[in-house]
Amino acid sequence: GEPPAAETPPAVMVMPAPEEYMMGPPPTEDDPIILGSPMDAPVGFGEDATPAEKTPMQKFADEWQVILRERKDHENSSKAEVVMESQKEMELFHERRDKTRETRMAKNRSDEQSKLESLEADLENDNSWQRVVKMVELQADTVEASEDTKRMRDVLISLKNDKDKALALSE
Prior knowledge:
The protein starts with about 55 loop residues before the first helix and ends with a helix. The chain is built from four helices and no strands. About 60% of the residues lie in helices and about 0% in strands.
């Protein structure tokens, strides 16, 4: 019969790709960008060709690399300037914000202190109607609203001013 299956050659034989045709690792920022074939052009195949001469493609590639380096340097310097400016702006923003915050905190502290002093002074006062009058808004916004609260406002003011009436009502 037939030869064993292990000894039969494959129907299509695939040749491994040579190292020079395989792609390498991805380029980094410092790697030059190379245009053209990955292999150097053969040198010395013509009678006119000398090893010291560069082909037009090699000259173009060299010039292009110089242009790319200049662009990259310009981009990096511009980027550094923008970063420095943004850092300065952020510092100014934080300074202004901190200053505003400190001012607001100081104002709130003083307002709180004056409010506490006012409350303590009201508690020491014997006439409780004075505290009531402070808590009630006695100024009317419009003429129509003032007619509705006129009697109440008059009663509160009279109680505030007359200690005898206030004591009589509180007993």
